[in-house]
Structures are given as C-alpha cells and as structure tokens.
Amino acid sequence: MNVVGKPRRRVDGRAKVTGQTRFADDFALPRMVHLKLLRSPHAHALIESLDVARAQAHPGVHLVLTGKDFPVTFGILPVTQDEYALAPEHVRYVGDPVAGVVARDEQTATEALDLIEVRYRPLEPIATPEEALAKPEPRIHAYGERGNIHRLQAFQFGDADAAIAASDHVFEDIFFYEGNTHLPIEQHACVAALDADGKLTLWSSTQVPHYVHRALARVLRMPASQIRVIATPNGGGFGGKTDICNHELVAAKAALVLGRPVKICLNREEVFYMHRGRHPVLMKFRTGVTKDGKLTGMHLQTLVDGGAYGSYGVASTFYTGALQTVTYELPRYQFEAARVFTNKPPCGPKRGHGTPQPRYGQEIQLDKIAERLDKDPAELRLAMLAKPNSLTANWLRIGSIGLEQCIKTVVERSDWKNRYRKLPQGRGLGLACGAYLCGAGLPIYWNKMPQSGVQLLLDRSGQVTLFCGATEIGQGSDDVLAAIVSEVLGIDPYEVRCVTGDTGMTPVDLGSYSSRVTLMAGNAAIQAAQKLKSMLAEAAAEDLEVAPERISFANGRVSFESHSLTFAEAVVLAEAKFGTLGAVGSYSPPRAPGKYKGAGVGPSPAYSYTACVVEAQVDPRTGWITIPKIWIAHDIGRTINPVLARGQVEGSVYMGLSEALMEEQVFRRLPPKLSRALVHKMPSLLEYKSITSLEMPEMDTVLIEDPDPNGPFGAKEVGQGPLLPVPPAVANAIYDAVGVRIDEIPITPDKVMRALEKKAKGEAPRVGPERFPDVPYPQPLIVPPAWEGGDGSEVKRHDAAAVV
Amino acid sequence: MRHAQLALSVNGEAVETSVAPYKTLLEVLREDLGLTGTKHGCELGECGACAVLIDGEPQLSCLVLALECEAREIETVEGMARGAQLHPLQAAFADLGAAQCGYCTPGILLTAKALLAREPRPTPSRIKEAISGNLCRCTGYQQIVEAIEEGARRMDDERRR
Amino acid sequence: MMRLPWFDYRAPRTLSEAARILAGEGPNAALIAGGTDLLPNMKRRQSAPKVLVSLRRIPELKRNGAVLGAGITLTEIVRKPELPRGLRQAAAQVATVHLRNMGTIGGNLCLDTRCNYYNQNYEWRKAIDFCLKKDGDICWVATASKRCVAMSSTDCAPALLALGARVTLVSANGERELPLEELYNNDGIDYLHRRPDEILTEVHCANAPSTYWKLRRRGAFDFPVLGVAAALIDGSARLALGAVASRPFLVAKANDFLRGKQLTDDVIDEAGRIAASRAKPMDNADLDLYWRKEVTAAFVAYALRELRGDDLRETRSRIARYEPA
Fold first, then answer.
1. Within a 10 A sphere around the Cβ of C122, how many other Cβ atoms?
2. A651 and A546, same structural domain?
3. Helix axes C296-308, C265-278, angle to 10 degrees
4. Contact at 8 Å (CB) between A235 and A184?
5. Predicted confidence (pLDDT) per residue in C229-284, tens digit
6. Residue A143, domain member (yes or no)
7. In this complex, which of B22, B24, B64 lies closest to C6 when CB atoms are compared?
8. Residue where one domain finishes, among candidates B55, B79, B103
9. What residues in chain C have per-residue pLDDT under 70?
10. What's residue A798's pLDDT?
C-alpha cells in the first residue's frame, strides 16, 4: 500500500497550524446580531410568569424569544423527545434556558437578560439517584417508568445466578464512577442565517449535522429541504457536541424571524450546563469464578444518574452493560440497569459512551480475582479471552480480536514479569483491558438506509472532490477519507479535496460519534473510489491496449507494465468515454444476530481491543499520586495514518487518566433548611480539574494490526477504546503500590490517605461505595445464549426452563 | 464612556481602530481586526487558548485591555509564517500530529516560539513546563512536545545553513 | 464570550498623578496592574469599578533593584537569581507561564481572597442568592459565620512574610512603610489594611535562606490550597502559612518553638504539628479540607528539611511536577 499505514501530515494540517481552520465562532457575517440565553437559576421550578417587555424595549435589542415560540419538543432519541428549545413552564436544572435575547452585540444582549422578569414557583430538587428512587414526587418528567425513574432494563442471558452460586469462588463488589464532562476547549457556537434564496443555513460546532438538520425541521416546523446545516470543524468534541442544542434551535428561529444572521457562542459556564457528559454510575458486580480462573457467570446491576433530560440516556444505560461480554469468555450473564432523572444538566455520551464505568468495575474485580486465586492478572486474562469470530452470551458477533497480542505487548514492554508485585513499597504496576465499538449497528432513528454515504467527483484536471456527511472534530476524518480514496486511486492524498459535514452538499453520514467514521464512511469511500477506478481502468486499458484488470494505479499514474498515463490523462480518457465522472458509495452495517427487544445496543461491525499497564507512585504519608509511565497497546485492525492513530490513542490515555485522577462534574446542595439551590460545584476551566502537560506521564504506545474483514483495509476504531483500560489500570497500580483499593473514580490523594489509615487500623483497606440501593428492576427478559439453545430472541418466561 | 482611538502594531503592521474601553486584546484581534486565528476557551485566564506574544512574551489576550497595548509589539498566529512558507514550528506541528482539533494550537505555537527564542534547544521537561499553561484536550501533549523538539531542530538547521 | 463592563480608563504617568486620581474617585476606582486578578473578577461581575487606574505607565513601580517596585512581574522575579529562593519559588508556582508574564508582585500581594461560592459568574451566584462577600447576606461556607471566610490565595505573601518583608503604601497624603504582616487582616472581605486611596508601591526584602512549598492539584493554573514558607532569619527558622485562612500569617507558636533550635528531625516534626494545628482550611477550595489540614505537617517538614539543606528535589518534582526556580 502506498498511502495507508504511512505516517503523514494530515490533509487539513496546514489550516490548523496557521489559524485558518474556521471554527463556528470565527464566522462574522454582514448585519450579524447576537443571541444570549436567559437560564433558570432554579434547579427545579415552574414558571409562573415571564415578562419580556423591559428587555424588548432595551436599546439595541432586536428580538426576545420565549417558550411560547417553541411549542414542539425535540430529543436526540425518538423515544425521548422531552426537551424544549426554551422551557415553556417547567425548568429542570440550573441553566435550563427560558428565553433568548437577540441584540446588536453580546454586551447589549447580556444587559437585556437582566431585564426579563421571571416569576418561578420553586419545587423540591432531586439531587441524587437515591433521592430519585425514594421520591416519586415532584416528578421531573411526566413520562418514564414511574416517579423519577426514567428507564429500567433487565436481561438474563442464561441463568447467571445459578452459575455463580455453583462457582468455586464468588466475588461481589460495588463500584462508583463519578460523572465528568467533555470540556472541549472550543465552546459551542453557531451562526444561523438566511441564504440568498431565503433558505436557512446553520453553521454549528456539532458532531451530528444530520441529526441537527432533522431536529430543526421538526422544531421550526419547516421542510428539511429548506434547511442546510454545516458542521464547522469542532474544536474538540468527545461526544459533547453530539446532541441537539437549545441554542442552535433558538438562533435558527431568530434568523428566520429577523432575516439576518444570528450568532451565539456559549460561555464556559454554559458549556458545563450543555454537558451531555459521562453519567455517574453506581455498579454492583457479582461474578462466579472456577478455581482455575474461568468466569462462570456475571450479574451486573447499574444505577445511572441521568440528569434532567433523556438525551442519549436510554442508549447510555444499555451501554453500562452491553460490552461486558466481548473481552472475556462469559457463558452466562445477567444485566439490570436503571436510569433516573435528577435536577442536574443532562448526561449523555462521552468518549466510551456508557462503557468506561462498568469497565472500571470489571477490570478491578479481575485484579481482585487474580489476587485471591494467586494468579498473575495478565495470565488470568490471557486464559479467558473471548474467541475471534464468535458470538457472546448477549448475542454480539465478534470478528477479529487482537487482545492477546495487546496484553503480551504491554506485559513485555513494561517488564511486568519482573516488576509487578516486586517494586518497592509506594510503587506499583496495574494492568487492565478494554474493548469498544466501531460504530453502532443500528442508527438512532429506525430506517433501512445506509449509515454513511460518500460521493466522489472527478474533474478532468485530475482533481478528486470527496463529499461526505462525516464531521471533522479533530480526529482526522477528512484525512482518513482522503487517504482511503487516494490509496484506491493511486494518487497523493493531498490531491483530494474534502467537502464534509454539510447537509446541503454531502450525502448523509450519521455523524462523528460511536467511533463509526473510519469504518463506515471509510467503507463507503472505498466503494465509491472502486467504481471510479474501474471506469478509469477501462478507459486506460483501451488506450494502452490491455485488459482492464491488468491496469495498476500508483504514484499518480495509471499503468500497465512500463506503459503509463498520468492520472489526469486517464481521467480525460474516461470522461470522453463515459461522460462526467462521479460515483457514490454507501455503507450499512451487517445485520446483528440478536433479535430480542434491546438487542439494538451493542452490536457493531467490529470491536477494537486495548490493553494497558500503568505505573503509579504513591506517597504513603500524604497519599499523593504520581503516574510516571503508561504502556498501551491498541488493536486497531489496520492503521490508516500512524501519526493520527497514535494521537488518538494518546489523547484517550490522557482523557482516561484525567478522569481517573481528577475530573468530576459534581454539584453542590446548599443546606436544605436555608435554600433549595442545587448548583454545579465548579463550572470553570480552573476549578473543573483536567490534567496539564506536567501531569502527563511518559507514554509507550503500540498499534497492533489484526485486520478485521469488516473494516476498510481491515481498519477498526482508535478514538475511544484506548480510554477504557486506563482508569482501572490506575486503580490496580495504586493497589500494587500501597495495597489499598479505591473502588471509585476519581482516585484522589485524600481517598488514598483514608484507605491507608483504614489499613493501618486493620480495617478493609478500601474506599468506595458501601451499599447498592434497592432498585425495582423488572423481571428480566430471558434470552438464552446460543450454546443454551437460543436463537437470539427472548423466550417467554414459562418456556425458559424448557430451553435451559 | 466613549470609544477610544487605538493604534496597535500587530504582526509588524501598524493598525488603527476605534474600540470600546472594555474590549480586551482578544476581542479587538478577533472582532475588530478579523484575526480569528487567536482562540478563546474561557476568557478568564484559565486555558491558554488566547495566548499571543506581546513584546515577545506569551500573554493571555483575554486579560489584556486593548488600550494597554499601544506601543507594544503584538504577534498572533497569523504572523508566524514567512510569506507562504510555514514557520518551522508550524510545519513540525502539522507533520507530527501536534494539532488534532487545532483549537489550542495557535496559543501553543506562540508559547513555544517564545520558549525557543530564550532556549533554542529545550529538554522535553522544559517544554512541558513552558506549555503547562495551555490546556489541550485532544493530544495528551506528547506529540506537541515532540513537535516543539522537532521545530527546535529545524530552526537550528536553518540557522546553520 | 465573557466581557468586561463599561468603565473609564485612566493611565497616569506618575505615582503622584495616580494617587491624585485615586483620591478623587474614591471607592469607585480600582487599580489595574497585570489585570490577571481584577479582570476575571470584573468579567464575572464580582466587581464593576467605574474607573480603572492603570499602573502600567508609572516608571517608579518598575524599579528592580534592592527595592522591588510593585509593578515587577512574577516572571521578572523568577529570573532574578539574587532574590531570595523562597520568593522565587513562590513566584514560579503562581498560575501559569502566561499569567506570570502579566501578573505583578504588587498584584499578587493584594490578590482578592477566593472562595468557591464567590469566584463564579453572576448567574451562578444568583442561583445561590449570592453570599456575604458580594451582594448577599449569608456565608454559605459557614452559615453561622458573621465573617466572610474567603481564603487568602497569594503565594508570594507567605514567602515574603517568612523573610520579614516590608511594603510601602503611597497616597495623595503621603506614604507609609509597614511590615507585610500588618498589611493583612483575617477577614475575607476586608482582607487588606490598605485604604482605598493607597497604592502599594514597593517591597523591601533582605535575602536569606528560604523556601516555599505549595499544595495544589496540578502543576499549573491552580491557586494554592496550602502554602508553606520557611526562612532562616538570625539563625532561627520562621514559618508562614498561606491559603489556610483569610490572610497569610506567620505561625507565631511554631516560630517561638523554633527560635534558636537546630532543625533536627524531632524539631521539624514538632514544628509541623504546631503549624498544622494553626491551619484552618475551609470547604471552599479544591481538595478535601480535612486532608489539606492533615498534610500540613508533611509540607512544613518539606520546607524545613529543604531549609536545613536536605536534597528534596525528588519530592519537589513529585509535588510541584517541575523544578520551580
């Protein structure tokens, strides 16, 4: 291969280092006016009255919009259309938008916000999942399972409890993973304007222009064909820009009313309110193990703090249990989950979407199992790895698995065998693994169309233009697409012009989330490029008087042996022969084998795998934690551009480490006797701690190539999976260093200190959640695994015994 | 409370504009001069995205009053390239994956340029220290550190030539 | 984008002119030097002075000899090896490279007190119905407290206190010099004994063996949640603490104990115990407050051991994440 696998400057590299990449807030259009949102100061309240007269009369104010202007709800998932662009009567978290002011400049709009008079009737806020379970009233939403329980899910893939009960060893552990947020350095921004034809254009820092497009049509009640959404390059996404945002809808409406461009850029505090970040999850793992270290069954229960709206929450909740089966052989699995509403900014998908939380618990529990069984944690895992080309208990189809090589690589490079459990007191190593999707098997809204499309246009100059809905969020999607097309056509990737993320110009791609772009848009690009290639081959073959299949494409030439044409010459011949040259490609994932209700979350065309070893240093006097080095190996299938792939792995390590050590999206309840306030504890870049260059350890990064038949040239994802093993590996390393278990995230020095004090007193050397509340999980859906006679469907309860 | 006349020197060019006194250098660069290469992530001095060079030293344009910049030399990312040719640091950043989303990149490039002006061949730990006031959420910093080392090498080579 | 409110901008060229403006404008005016503390507060509407008096063009404040002008930047302090090590270590750990290029020693000494209930946007503070320090009538950190408990967060002050520094204040009515210790008041609102018409102009500080240890979450950006300074004055070690009260202070009981004593391990332990008993961290800053109190003794030990001449570079690089100054 000429392009794929070679380290290269990304195609948009020059723009990024010259400041020419145009982010949403960089747009300034003639006659542009500015939008600011008035947000609720109450965590939970009803709006009794709202008077905008004074704001409207303020000099420089053009328009004030309120909930009355937005009668239609929206939501990213069809089953949870529970948000309003501006809340008409019920506010559900501090920061919930209630009005929008458009003025000549941002300063004037801000001044006018203070002139809007809102009378609220405060309601009791629900601060925690425990409260949400205990207090059905006041209800945050009128829909859901009951009270403040949004969603309950329960599945039984074989009788796990029976298997666990019959095991040589049973492990029961409770873990907690605190919520955290994406913290893109670019604050969300958008500009809405009417184009010369009177159609609406929205430039927005979004990862999902297609979904924004659909939501705008719904909320503004106008045909989608009259709306164009352009995703500007995102200044960091990480999942934080995958939802429909209130400000996008309000700006669009304002542009329609005023007939002039309207801009908004959230301030940092508002970005914390936009959130849609990592759900706080409380987890209970009951796991059975044979005396030689094989898993017999796992029963996982999760309690998910959803915040004030649905967002992606139903999917996130499924993901707190969907991928426990893809790393290690697990014959029986029971999974129960609950998502509750609380009066906090809504949670959603952050890098790893719902899976880092249970991965944290699972990988620490494996460390505990290895210790009890007196086995090396690496050997324990290697002996139980899931098999390639297999089905899991919950009916996921696994293709390639490079996990064995990943584990062996980090074990060897970290000198694990000589250092684990052998370092002096205060120093330790920890190992953990993980796996992730390469795109979700099903789209967010039910349809039979492809998940990704690519269109190629070939100009007679030899220029190739690629059109695709995929969104450049820094991950390098443009570069991946250019590389794939240029590999197929034998040209230089810098010859390919990428037009991406524009619903007015590009075929639909569902967006840059769930690690789907390389695999899905990549396959679509191959398909389109191959169509063009055969046309070029046919035309060139005629000219060179050989059979088309003997024509080769490389280095900008179309050749047969020593006879060759330039690529542009071949294009001219082909255009003369076939007319204007263009081709399309599209991708739909393979049908998933699971047929039960709920089987839609978890399937993927391929799974990526990662193993990680963390070295930790802990000061026994203060609990102070230092991480000197991290070794990581990621099974990427095939590397398209090693420079970018390594960046994705290292960025994931960074984010996982930052979550492990300090990131927390947490809230403050004032004394209830004095106040109903429930506020974000620290909505600032200073007090929401994320690690700097100085906390970053040395990283040893290895890409493992085990090509997957479903990936373009075998490629799998690399943007999310490598985050997963990092937090549990940190926890395991701290245990190796000082013998204390921190069964919750973040792992802070005060928690380590508390655990050390317990240890000194002879108590269990552990800090973490002590109990798991009673959750009214429903009767599980019974879905027998394939090896217990199942066919992927649920069985009726009275039939279950017969099947098992 | 009126607008003030302001004469600045930006990237070696004299510019004049009239601004409200409350405007920071960041706002004037982006909104009045159209130099949107300078980014912002908090406007409170908590991220480093808006860093520019003032008299050769990296400072945060979000916390500098534009009125206080008269008679001082301001350099932004737009002033780094020489004609169409990238500054060696820019080229190294592009080649080595130091810019993923590219949003923190202008601030880090200028911070690195100031570092190399003082210390032409800094160690990786000195580089980490110098850019510790620039938050990056994408890279994990490693490729940035390597790109600054590479930029320093390329600048060295240029000087030798 | 967070923006500043409207204000009138004045840029006097001499100290006396600045003092005159300040005398005329009264509490409506605020001084701006580096701007790194004032401007974020103004953007969050914690303060909205009508007049900003810039100190940038006053040459007297830039004096950089035996006497330090208040307008010397923190970076300039770090780069001046003849200054006491403790002061340079403190300056080198303030905020970030960029902010040290902007912030001044005078500004750091006069830094507003900080609190998680106060250093927030206007909208956030409205959601808690404000607090004692600004626009409200209750301290949410200690609801029974009549006094604001916002925390002194200056790094340079403890270092200079341990060194016995003095400062000069100038007003239209004349000037006065006082021990730095007397500049501070243990009240989160009235935290300085500086009259509104006074300008801090100079810092006087003799060189002496000294050291500064800062506790914060990250190696950059963060304000201290504990600062321990130690200096050897007339043969005795002296300790000052920062970020554990509304003022930085010399730890009188510990310093009485240390007077005339060799810094043996036992003496260091006892000094740490005494100093820790004086630390009163509150739940208004980063990290668990009980833990912050608990590790005070360890940080005092780092400071005193470094003062004694122990090689603490490895510990320093783990705590500070780099080698400050």
1. 19
2. no
3. 140
4. yes
5. 999 999 999 999 999 999 999 999 999 999 999 999 999 999 999 999 999 999 99
6. no
7. B22
8. B79
9. none
10. 62
What is the pLDDT at residue A192? 98
**Domain assignment of residue A78, given as a range:** 33-123+186-235+241-274
Residues of chain B contacting residue A234, judged by C-beta atoms under 8 Å apart: 101
Read off the pLDDT band of B2 (50, 70, 90). Answer: confident
Give the CATH architecture of domain C8-319: 2-Layer Sandwich (3.30)
Q: Residue C234 and residue C259: Cα distance in Å, rounded? A: 9
Q: Name the residue among A267, A626, A671 with its Cβ closest to that of C1.
A: A267
- Collect all residues of chain B within an 8 Å Cβ-Cβ radius of residue C316: none
Say whether A687 and C116 touch across the interface (CB within 8 A).
yes
For C323, name the nearest residue in chain A, comparing CA atoms only: A694
Residue A170 three-state SS: strand
What is the CATH classification number for the domain harbouring B65? 3.10.20.30
Distance CA A91, CA A93 (A): 6
Classify A477 as helix, strand or coil. Answer: helix
Confidence of residue A799 (pLDDT cuts 50, 70, 90): low
Which residue type sits at A753?
Answer: M
For residues A618 and A635, membership in a common domain is answered with yes
pLDDT at position B115 over 90: yes
Of A528, A560, A587, which residue constitutes the final position of a domain?
A587
Residues A327 and A470 in one domain: no
Q: Are residues B95 and B75 in the same domain?
A: no
Tell me what pLDDT residue B161 has. Answer: 86
The residue of chain C with its CA nearest to that of B2 is C8
CATH of the domain at A496: 3.30.365.10
- CA of A258 to nearest chain B CA: how many angstroms apart? 22
Q: Do A675 and C128 touch (CB under 8 A)?
A: yes
With CB atoms and an 8 Å threshold, state whether C288 touches A686: no
Q: Which chain B positions have a beta carbon within 8 Å of A10's beta carbon?
A: 94, 97
A776 inside domain: no
Mark whether A289 and A417 lie in a shared domain.
Answer: yes
Q: Is the pLDDT of residue A605 over 50?
A: yes
Residue pointed to by tokens 């197929």:
A488
The ipTM is 0.98
A253 and A302 fall within a common domain: no
A708 closest CA partner among A522, A487, A512: A522
pLDDT at B3: 87
Same domain? For B44 and B62 the reply is yes
Number of domains in chain A: 3
Say if the Cβ atoms of C98 and B58 lie within 8 Å.
yes
- CB < 8 Å to B1, chain C: 6, 8
| Nearest residue, CB atoms, C98 vs list B4, B21, B59 | B59
Structural domain spans, chain C: 8-319
| Average confidence (pLDDT) over A169-181 | 98
B21, B44, B68 ranked by CB distance to C7: nearest: B21
Question: Are B8 and B72 within one domain?
Answer: yes
Interface of A with B in 451-510 (CB under 8 A): 473-476
Domain residues for the domain of B120 are: 88-160
Pair (A530, A627) in one structural domain: no
Same domain as A170, residue A205: no
CA distance A158 to A232: 47
Position A435 pLDDT exceeds 90:
yes
Tens digits of residue pLDDT in A303-314: 999 999 999 999
User: Are B47 and B97 members of one domain?
Assistant: no
- Please check whether residues A84 and A221 belong to one and the same domain: yes
Q: Are B58 and B114 in contact (CB under 8 A)?
A: yes
Sheet holding B51-54, edge to edge: B13-19, B4-10, B73-75, B51-54, B57-60
Does the pLDDT value for residue A804 go beyond 50? no
Q: Which CATH number belongs to the domain containing residue B131 in this structure? A: 1.10.150.120
How many domains are there within chain B?
2
- Token pair belonging to A761: 């007193």
pLDDT of A407 over the 90 cut: yes
Q: Which chain B residues are within 8 Å of C7, Cβ to Cβ?
A: 21-22
Q: Is A350 exposed, middle or buried (0-12, 13-18, 19+ CB in 10 A)?
A: buried
> What are the tens digits of pLDDT across the range B27-86?
999 999 999 999 999 999 999 999 999 999 999 999 999 999 998 999 999 999 999 999
In sequence order, the β-bridge partners of residue A102 are A35, A63
pLDDT at residue B1 in the model: 55
